[in-house]
Fold each of these.
Amino acid sequence: MSPEEVLKKIENLHATDLLPQSPENWEDSRNFLQQVVEILYDYIKEENNRESKILDFHQPEEMKKLLDLSIPEKPMNLGELLKSCSEVLRYSVKTGHPRFFNQISCGLDLVSMAGEWLTATANTNMFTYEISPVFILMEKEVVSKMVELIGWAPDQGDAIFTPGGAIANLYAVNAARHFHYPRVKPLGMSTVPTLCTFTSEDSHYSIKSAAAVCGIGTDHCFNIPTDNVGRMIPEALEEKIVQCKREGLHPFFVSATAGTTVYGAFDPLPKIADICERHKIWFHVDAAWGGGLLLSPEYRHKLSGLERANSVTWNPHKLLGALLQCSACFIRHDGLLFQTNQMSADYLFQQDKPYDVSYDTGDKAMQCGRHNDIFKFWLMWRSKGMEGYRQQINRLMHLTAYFTDRIKRTEGYEVLIEKPEYLNICFWYYPPSIRHLEEKEKNARLEKIAPKIKAKMMERGTTMVGYQPDKQKPNFFRMIISNQAITYADLDFLIDEIIEIGKDL
Amino acid sequence: MSPEEVLKKIENLHATDLLPQSPENWEDSRNFLQQVVEILYDYIKEENNRESKILDFHQPEEMKKLLDLSIPEKPMNLGELLKSCSEVLRYSVKTGHPRFFNQISCGLDLVSMAGEWLTATANTNMFTYEISPVFILMEKEVVSKMVELIGWAPDQGDAIFTPGGAIANLYAVNAARHFHYPRVKPLGMSTVPTLCTFTSEDSHYSIKSAAAVCGIGTDHCFNIPTDNVGRMIPEALEEKIVQCKREGLHPFFVSATAGTTVYGAFDPLPKIADICERHKIWFHVDAAWGGGLLLSPEYRHKLSGLERANSVTWNPHKLLGALLQCSACFIRHDGLLFQTNQMSADYLFQQDKPYDVSYDTGDKAMQCGRHNDIFKFWLMWRSKGMEGYRQQINRLMHLTAYFTDRIKRTEGYEVLIEKPEYLNICFWYYPPSIRHLEEKEKNARLEKIAPKIKAKMMERGTTMVGYQPDKQKPNFFRMIISNQAITYADLDFLIDEIIEIGKDL
């Protein structure tokens, strides 16, 4: 049959004509899968074409009319399913496009993607060695490499891959509480004094969210002020701890951030570690975004002090470019994850199995079923080696320096932080129409500039970059340079595109 | 070039030779991906071959020697990566094999798998309409269909797809607490009396785990006794609630189970709903496993009363066969998910965007980044339609009746529950050597039979089925018939295989 005839044939088939319902029909099964793969190939090719649009933006109500998303009464045939696949991709945002600077997690590493395809096909669950022997050992191997990079002693520390950094932070708060107040697990919070936690005002909101979930209360998660580049002020932390103690609260958890979401700041870890030691408080570092720098000998000093942490959150789906989701929570205290989360569900995690059940991870997780997030990361890491990551990260740091320098020298642009510590560059753009206004009026107008430019970008579909306000500062852009696809020319493009859009504002 | 030459060429390349690092080199990128896909095709074909082994079991220490899992200093070439892919699959457990009866989540639906491949390629994050317009609308559409099936009024209720049922249950406990005691979110548990929750002794351990995480305490999560088929005894529930109140505790949350993990029992929802109403307690139903039955008009009556629930957990990755992970938590109270989880992180979820931001889901999630679990389910559901699922589910129920009947009539087998309610069949097997022992001795020997048979099965690699003890009952097998690939002959095979292995015990 010709390719057209093959397509014609499978288009009229249904899922029931494929494996496993039609166990003999491998040929059509393969042809269907191959058609899906061809659609994905086209998408990848287009995503990597700088001339292609990042998105074809439509308002929600309009988008609903463009797409039929309904669940039908009768099965749809394979041709209709293939059409669905194409349509969905047509209206999706190309997060791997080299000019998508909108999120910390972006880019599409083809090796990691291939890894995720394999993960889907293997479709297993990370809770026991019994059903995930290879992936469980792989997780152990990768964890021990990451522990080494964190700087803990070999074989010290334990970790679990979690669905995102927010849940990793929740694991850390919960483990810290169990370490200091083990009675809470059986008896609840009524048996302990009023607990409190600390994090910088620039930290990720998940630290506060964990306080809500754990029954500590968001008002007992104190925001410590930051300095002019976004780093927690250690003296302010210690002052607040002392004040809380004086008021009868029990401080037990400090979260420092290595790589804040907006400014990319690194809190001064050694000083915070000292304070935690002095006050016998759990020292957590949220390195979800910044952790990847450990792979660069040139920049890992920014994380020095991390080795003193009691726990660390680190998301390989951020700087390291693994596909979403890939996050881990590391705990320096052996056995604590088990003690905290174990519910002794013998009906699931039998102790009389024919292998060493200490390899099973179910009892140390808050989840029961757990997605395999390790393979895509492991395969990608192998494809780069330590050396490849080092080069990739150092290159991104150079691109950041280049971009910062360029916008500083370009009329209309103003950086919020003179020398960004990391891959976030925060800046304002003043269109010609507001440049010569007096300060107050200019700032009032500035507040609306970034949303307007962003809306226009989305309409044009050429590039995307995020914005937000911060405290008294009007809306500003936050550029993220974490996609390995980015070139110097892409950065020039963004600068020119904003100028172009700003002309008419 | 011949296929061999193509392979030869790409084997010596590195990831840096592919997109996006080498933006022009689509041809090699495609060839590499295609090689991975060919490996996956071989795996799928083999997995669906009943003669193939489900696993090639090795002890952890031995497995470590068979596989090189290390992270190298230098990049590995594409040939080595392909070899890694093959090796990993070679030692993985084929959870989609038609004779893998070990877990509730198993099988490999090719359409759902193709969906997950697309999800990987689209690699986006479910927190805003801005970067996931199509998938956000799709989640809304699927949620409204599921809400309809649950039996809530149209447009009533809200839901979020979560990483597994345990986290979905955690969402429910947290939302219920916020509903009854909104002050806990800002002020913590010290502002409320001692709270307590209730669930049956046969329920999933994640209800207890949620009590631990939330600071309620596992001792304040009371296990209500079950009847002889594993259903919660409503009178015992009410008695316990009254007793708790008398003792000064504040009951606020009851979790009924629709489809228990071991026996597949359905708690009597209407009676439990009555009790919850009488005592003004939140009524949650953990239908992670049983929820799928709503798609069968013939069996959905088992869930009647579900429409009275305040919240429901339902995992499409169980009965409905979506790839892991695919779980959702439904909350009947509009806006409650937002109120509970919102942390007002304006720096991420701006309110001045150029579209209706009520479509953004970030503020109603406990997570920040959220994996796209909807597409693989949506595509699969379309491939089956309502009709296809109905047939698939009814067929599985027939297979269960067949299997139960057969083992009842086969010497050496004994069922624990005469007429299983669902797709779990629990049974003992007495090998000839112990059949004629006196009761006490027989039971002592029986305890070790299931683990021995299981170990032997794993060695032989022919089939897999789980076992566990329960209260005073010695270890028994728990058969799960949820993989659409299963045939009557596969069930016969299992019965014979156990007899075969049991001969020599």
Note: Chain A has a mean pLDDT of 96.
Amino acid sequence: MQWAISRRAQQLTSSAIREILKVTERPEVISFAGGLPSPASFPVAAMEAATARVFADNPAAALQYAATEGYLPLREFIAKRHNVGVERVLITTGSQQALDLIAKVLIDPGSKVLVETPSYLGALQAFSLFEPEFTSIPTDDKGLQPEALTAELTAGARFLYALPNFQNPTGRRLPLERRQALVARAREFGVLLVEDDPYGELSYTGDQLPTLLSMNPDGVIYMGSFSKILAPGLRLGFVIAPPELHFKLCQAKQASDLHTPTFTQRVAYETVRDGLLDRHIPTIRELYGKQCRVMLDALARHMPEGVSWNQPEGGMFIWLQLPQGLGLDSMAILEEAVKRNVAYVPGAPFYASNPQRNTLRLAFVTVPPERIEQGVAILGKLFREAIASAPQARAA
Amino acid sequence: MQWAISRRAQQLTSSAIREILKVTERPEVISFAGGLPSPASFPVAAMEAATARVFADNPAAALQYAATEGYLPLREFIAKRHNVGVERVLITTGSQQALDLIAKVLIDPGSKVLVETPSYLGALQAFSLFEPEFTSIPTDDKGLQPEALTAELTAGARFLYALPNFQNPTGRRLPLERRQALVARAREFGVLLVEDDPYGELSYTGDQLPTLLSMNPDGVIYMGSFSKILAPGLRLGFVIAPPELHFKLCQAKQASDLHTPTFTQRVAYETVRDGLLDRHIPTIRELYGKQCRVMLDALARHMPEGVSWNQPEGGMFIWLQLPQGLGLDSMAILEEAVKRNVAYVPGAPFYASNPQRNTLRLAFVTVPPERIEQGVAILGKLFREAIASAPQARAA
């Protein structure tokens, strides 16, 4: 029997990330592909103690249905950290769910949605289910270019989706003056900003730039996550929104999963309530900063001329560009890379339109230093070969 | 600033259930409104021991990102219980999420969706976000009437949504011969069946009727839940679907929340793997059966003539009908009931069309027996007054 499915489901194709995650399950593969945080960064002992307290305190409440908005003490904790009223905070089942809820509340078929070039693949997927028309905003190596936002470009846009801190996939951080310009232009043109910020705490030096939310709380939907500072297996994120949008997001959430698991919310709150994050996050910053330097050093040693990459100030990713104009496609090269037991994520799926196929994303946080060195050496050799045998290189 | 929101979000109105849950938070209210399972039924000690094992065994895996399909041992456990291949099983964040995913994959704006009369409010909400046209199928006190399904009624329907076991809100169980007739007609007319079965295990005598899934695995999407047999605060449900639909549901889930929390999946599996459900479910059946009898006895003592209700064989609900033809509206009467500190859920929101406003749902599982007696006595008096002063009664 062939069942009739929705138009949106017909458009769903197998995700590049899914296919790649399958490959990287082989232990011999050195994977720079995953977006997984390092398990070494999970505060296991603190979470185990917190869970014991949840069972000791009020297990019946921890295991019962609860309010859609989320566990009040956890919402208060978040509200305080972000200096907003608790009535604006909604707990979500990972920040991926926040993307789904935002799409439900804001996107009709054909709605204009502004995205960075490139942008987070998971967001493009979540939004796509609701059939928007994406408009790509130009970026350079500092991120989104606010001066590109004109009345014409933004006309009728439901929102602009941005990742100002250590963006997935590029690792770029938007400078302060660009944040100010972005908020000013968004205000001028009446564009709602959706700020996705899972990596904001992961600045290697600990310096943090103000969020877009802090610059204009009534014009920003802010998305945060415990996945990179506590543990992703809890699937805990949150969204801070202006009151009228908060209310709609809650209603959409109620229809989507009633509420995020009470149990994980209470475990997370018991884990962080005494200030653990202030002690714990610096250890993640140090770990990731060290891993990043190892990869940057290896890239400097092994990459052939013409390959370029950024120097992240935080986060989990480096964005690499193979020489332009040679017709190089990182997706095609990945097949050979995997044969040599190294994986990365090709850049093309991160573009809403006109993909730059010479780009790729490298994640460095879960790979031991000696394997980073080894994997980058293999990639360096492979890219050298690819450049030498590129269609345009041969033609020249 | 008034932001432009989606057409579906404009349709979202405050849910009757949400408003009622607020009222019932006052401790003096005797609430027959909640659909909450009894906390006395949560196997807390077993879950606490299971959680300790999860932390002891492999905490890094329990706290890390994982596959969208769900934790394989838990999927295998479910596949075995339902005698299907594990490749058909997808773990969801509560069965509410299964409703959302099914809607995403199967409903376009204007798609015909067949529902029982009345049907589960949470399903109507989840489906409504995707803007279907509901067609209500007639029911009587045994549930859905299969002979109502004709070629004309079912033409072009994306699916038929049914709760054959102890339906929410009516508590009705579909007899075996109706199940057989339903499956036969669905097959004849090419209608996909969506079987929602959170209460199937809660037969008071332990006798269970075959699922629609077991009668035609390739024509049924089956939804199950751990909420009523373990604990709802874990938000763990599952969906069993024919392979091509399973694949689409997984893709939709990936965009919706990546995966259900790894932590809760492992805790649930560690709780049930040694056969706990076989020992535990009989205790829930006994508890709920006893509570149901207390309410049935109280209803028989206190309800005025003309009020009728069913005698559930399982589940958590009794469906009550005030006399017809008097213009009685259980929603209007609820305001007075709450003033007298008793709550229930009015029947109207459970109808996709043409609500019968003289109906209401009573939940009995969380209220102590003496409070059931007290609350039903108050309702009996109130309904007697309402009947006496009903518009049509006065006019007569």
Note: Chain A is about 45% helix and 15% strand.
Amino acid sequence: MTSPRARGSLRVLGIDPGLTRCGIGVVDVAADRSARLVHVGVVRSDAGAPIEERLAVIAGGIRHIVDTHAPQVVAVERVFAQHNRQTVMGTAQASGIALLIAGERGLPAATHTPSEVKAAITGYGSADKRQVQTMVARVLRLDALPQPADAADALAIALCHAWRSGGPVAASAALTPAQRAWQDAERLARR
Amino acid sequence: MTSPRARGSLRVLGIDPGLTRCGIGVVDVAADRSARLVHVGVVRSDAGAPIEERLAVIAGGIRHIVDTHAPQVVAVERVFAQHNRQTVMGTAQASGIALLIAGERGLPAATHTPSEVKAAITGYGSADKRQVQTMVARVLRLDALPQPADAADALAIALCHAWRSGGPVAASAALTPAQRAWQDAERLARR
């Protein structure tokens, strides 16, 4: 069951990739940067099942959300090889599945690093998980912090993408002063 | 166009995962360990295309081979986080796509490390690429080394899987003395 997208808003599917828990969040973001929760949840796969079956379960869960909520864009948290080697390959495979589904449905996709997400949500790239969750709950006017953490992260990725890409309006106009400063610093760092 | 599987043989799809070039090899392996080439090739994706489109191209290429040649099992080279960080994430994502397709088609899948593949094919886990290619060509009675290298690697992975799993017969009976020695050494190393 989905709710119709508000006129002029951008519907973003955010994914925090993982094999055991893959966070899924869908938000509508308006031109004025206000956002509304459409869906939040987690797709789980059994750690004891063969990898091919686990990936098929994750794919089925993501496809169901795409079919139900018809997002316009998919945003996936970027995975780094140097982080937590034991689980990084499964996380990378799950992120590949999420991006594949976007490609197969003709949806544009983007990846954002954890620090891009934190900076977009809190204005601070080294914010802790609790700060991010608190801001996500505030932005979406939720009564409680989204649970589990993977679900909250997926919402943060979706919001990050909408805000960084400017949502339905131009990018720079949609940035807060903190985000604009961050973007400028990133541009300088790339030179 | 496929050739019918020989009675009592095992048809294995081997995949050397990659985004720019994904090696694909299909072999039939008989109970006496003899093997026959069914298909060899590479699925390429444009390095300039968005990642979601590249993964969809890779998935389309693998699905086409599964539909055409109806393998009974899928074997994928295992990716390690510590190898070549710049491309490892794309390789891991492509391996996830290969495993997903196996899962979605109800086919069992397995991963093998590069040294498992080298040991199975040449009897020596540190064999160089040329040695592996030469043995693959000899086993499959090919007039030339399979090209490109990714395609040869995919055939090696497929042969490795059939031989390690015992193909259509029991595993240990199907091992050469060198492979049995290697397997014993691996068992000892794991203790």
Note: Chain B has one domain: 10-190.
Amino acid sequence: MGSQFTNVLESLESKYFNPLDPEDFRHKAHKAVDFIADYYKTVQTYPVLSQVHPGYLKNRLPDTPPDTPESFDTILSDIQNHIIPGITHWLSPNFFAYFPASVNSAGFLGEMLCTCFNSVGFNWVASPAATELEMVVMDWLAFMLHLPKSFMFSGSGGGVLQSTTSESVLCTLVAARDRVLNEIGMEHIGKLVVYGSDQTHSMFKKVCKLAGIHPWNIRSVSTRVEDEFSLSPHVLQKVIAADVEQRLVPLYLCVTVGTTSTTAVDPVKHLADVAKRYNMWVHIDAAYGGNACICPEYRHFLDGVEKVDSVSLSPHKWLLSYAECCCLWTKNPDLLVDSLRTNPEYLRNEHTESDSVVSYKDWQIGTSRRFKSIRLWVILRSYGVENLQNHIRTDIRMAITFERLVSSDVKFEIVVPRRFSLVCFRLKQLNGFDTESMNRKLLERVNSTGRVYLTHTVVGGIYMLRFVVGATLTEEWHVIKAWEVIKEVVNTMVNEYEWKST
Amino acid sequence: MGSQFTNVLESLESKYFNPLDPEDFRHKAHKAVDFIADYYKTVQTYPVLSQVHPGYLKNRLPDTPPDTPESFDTILSDIQNHIIPGITHWLSPNFFAYFPASVNSAGFLGEMLCTCFNSVGFNWVASPAATELEMVVMDWLAFMLHLPKSFMFSGSGGGVLQSTTSESVLCTLVAARDRVLNEIGMEHIGKLVVYGSDQTHSMFKKVCKLAGIHPWNIRSVSTRVEDEFSLSPHVLQKVIAADVEQRLVPLYLCVTVGTTSTTAVDPVKHLADVAKRYNMWVHIDAAYGGNACICPEYRHFLDGVEKVDSVSLSPHKWLLSYAECCCLWTKNPDLLVDSLRTNPEYLRNEHTESDSVVSYKDWQIGTSRRFKSIRLWVILRSYGVENLQNHIRTDIRMAITFERLVSSDVKFEIVVPRRFSLVCFRLKQLNGFDTESMNRKLLERVNSTGRVYLTHTVVGGIYMLRFVVGATLTEEWHVIKAWEVIKEVVNTMVNEYEWKST
């Protein structure tokens, strides 16, 4: 080292703060693994729905951060004593609410590797493996779903990992919007109309408003119980025709395969036929239901996909990925990039300039992105396609068990036919008492036991309970026990009601 | 178990697919920890910039996923042989590009715990601890930054964890937009004008277009070298006044504390004074520079923050969090929620109905969200405020070392005064050769050694090299060695050029 450095070096303190000593990391991370494995072993002993009251945590933690370090043991003990009581245990085998989160060892290992490299792959050169593995994995999943080549990199399209369906819809909607506005002029943004059904996920309206679509121009087409709450192509046609007559411009249709409330499936092919008459962008939101389409017997729900422009599906919902993981495929990557491209000098390099590589920052909202594909890659390889299909089928079989239990009890009814692993059911009318308030009470009492957690919905004016099988640790006996908890609560209620009505 | 279940049970296969056996998880996760610790130990032996060519991975991996399981050992060996060669090692101590990613043991442990619970905390009841810990941590960080109470839950505002600055800007921009459109009418969206400088991050234009702002109405106010590329309040005032004269409506100003190219700092206080004359929403993008403001000696860069509406800062850039972690605080949570609220039946519960709790899904774009606050909480507690300040100061001291080395060499010049841990420098004019192409060649050659990675930018027409200290494993000797690599390359080039010019 040359003498010119001596002064510089002497002027610096010798002590550096190095918070990534590999041996310290190794020691503590092993400790964390044991903590987590023990949690997974005991998770079913906790109340599945947290029983704390709003504001519980504030009084247990200091108002300000510590000035000096605290030990990892202290932190783990605080997690055990203060955090875990406030957790609603999504991993509990007794979790049947919302759509459960499907987790697993391989997904966890994939997360660890994603974190390990912390590759911020906004463009190819920033981490070639991150970009290229994502392209491979997206094509693998497209293959599993029998998507047409037009959605694959090995064909003329491609896929990208987003965090949420909202982001997938926003990115494709904006691509569709800009294509049309480039033709008719930006000043006509107020004329653009988007379409979904009254069962389309609530994010749709929010995302459309984010993109500057006039709230009056967001159509939630009514569905009917006779159609099992799916969007009718005939009704859609009429709604669009009326808009066109008003000189509005039909822009985007969101078709759902597996709605959140009841897992209704919109008829993709016929809806796409209608929308394509008006040159609309058609997107399939298959966040939950699409996962089942890796099984040949459910693939027909995607029939007609070759006619649409984009499809999204969330493996974090049912294909063993931890949150946040939403797959988006499109036939029109160029349109996505036209709308979402940035080209700052500090990210330019020979590869991006020659257009020879994918820059995933131009396929999403943000600039930074994690190395998410490695998680999916580890999952797909660790289990293989057959086991993943088996996983979907096992969950559906357990849902059928629950469905049969409900059907065999005269006090209950199945409200909407089951399609996947969700059963929509309710207590029937009893002694003249209000059905909705009885079912509300049932839900509240069942959840307050902490032994099982389910949620509700209202569709077509009917209040119903939702029981979804999907938590990874759930086995059939958990389903049967859940039903017993429900029956116990109902029996208590029946006694109370009989007492009241006498 | 009642006899009515017997048939149902017999009709089911007895084998369940359970991919989360706690002991299997424990075994493999320990293996992953060792793999990762070993990677951290050896990361500096890899070429920091990946040396692969586009398409390298496709030919190394099968076109389709396996039907049956592969072992974790096989997968780890593929990661070693096929993935690691394609990785640009953001964790390498020789990484001085972009803004490096600051990682650490505590952040990793926090990630593991976030993954462990996989709490999808879209609203309070879905995981009370996830919501309440986020509120605590956001107030802790606000306290560390001396933000006014008006940005804290303990005051009248609050904070939320986003994934990226883009999302923070999109959410606040839409809140600002809707407030104004509610007054002047949605049909006037084409009149809204937003303001940044020519140094504002490239995401700004993209996000504004996403939100339906007319591309013509996105102002990139020119900065000057005399102002060190910061936005001049005087010039801004003139630009806004001209727009108002055209009957346009000033909406939103994005002020930057630490621009990406040169870490320029816009004068918050004076710019806010100008913008507030026009009732605009003022946002501070302090993604990188804001992290330094936890040290009292840098806090003045946020002076005037009490006048703005929102601030965002990314701990994944410099405060030891893994990607994706962007903190957003606002004085106006109600306006954010007004624009971003969804209220589907299936997520309703007594707490959301009574408005007694925060529903973080209404503070962000998507519905799902990870339990990110636990990562930051573990970091803040494991190191304490003093060490985090020490971390910032250490990086800046190392940047000063590099700055002095550059200054001491007559062939080089510092192009923009250093503010934080970024040094912008270049080779001076040499023997009549073109400065820009010489510096381009220098960068290309330095990076192709694999011994160090830095990037470039162009500001005010000047091509310059960026050297940022921030990778966690970097110690002073890495900085000195990097400078030696640069000098070696320059000496070779000087010899070549002298040969050419004779």
Note: The first helix of chain A runs from residue 6 to 10.
